[in-house]
Amino acid sequence: NCETSCDGYCQGNGGVYPYSCATNLDGVVAYQCGPPPNGGCAYQTDPTATGPAGFCTYKSTSASINCECPNDNDCMIAGTCIEDGICSDATVRDDGTPCNSVPFGICQNGFCMELPTPFPTHQPTKSPFETNIPTKSSIEPPTNPPTEAPVTSSPTTPPTLASDPYDMKDCSGICQGSYPFGCASSLPGIVSYRCHPEGGCHYGSSLTESFPHPGFCVFKTITSQTPAPTKPPTESPTNLPTEAPVTSSPTTPPTLASDPYDMKDCSGICQGSYPFGCASSLPGIVSYRCHPEGGCHYGSSLTESFPHPGFCVFKTIT
Question: By mean pLDDT, which of 60-69, 124-133, 176-185 is the weakest?
């Protein structure tokens, strides 16, 4: 397996740690990511468990050396763990790459620099007492500098609260864990990163891309301003079934069932293949659910209510 790094082997987060998987779960001793084309994540609570075939262990809390390579410079790519818990050197991002540490920032020589704001131009007005009409427009600097700063996010500092559901918020205390709340924070083409209080993530390619269901909290955006939403979220139902589910082996996709709490073959319903980018072994969890729009939910009982409609139960444990 991958003894020190899974970079380039796992496909989540562009092949960069943590590969769109969680890095801090109670009781988990081995964190694993899947190879292409399906990817996915797996979490082991048994120190002797080897996990699914072909999966790469990118973090192990049972190891004598716990190595993580932090990075607070968004113009540098963090190094990876090598021998004896030592981190390799960080890699400088290409010049011109957008960054979020400063307003309107771009990377230059490994640092996030603010682009200068061009002065506005004004066409001179003609006085009724003037006989000569100016032939060229003049360029005047503004008397007051711009007062609105862009809405940006830093991967290390939680943002402030906002009232618009599509605005970036401080999701600490709303979503589970701490930033980035078990979600990816750097994916190609993604400008809006969302987490859910019940678990699961959603990624928007535009700032106002509709949420798959209500309750998501936007913890990071990449842009200058966040426009108003164009599509309101849908409401979840108030009544949920209470029948007990049917169980089967977690390694073989089960057959279809009619009860929403029964285990189903979620292939073609959720994204990717089993376990559909979700955890499949968590302490105290007996019902594992995935959503067609992305995201996961974990139930401590077989009939624990879904946080919103549409979830597919791909594994149960009795």
Answer: 124-133
* Whether 217 contacts 238, CB under 8 Å: no
- Residue 269 has what pLDDT? 93
For residue 24, which of 197, 218, 180, 157 has the smallest C-alpha distance?
180
List the Cα angle 112/23/305 in 5-degree steps.
Answer: 115
Predicted local distance difference test score (pLDDT) of residue 3: 54
CA distance 193 to 221: 6
Tokens 């890699």 found at: 91
Average pLDDT (179-197) is: 91
Identity at 72, one-letter amino acid code: D
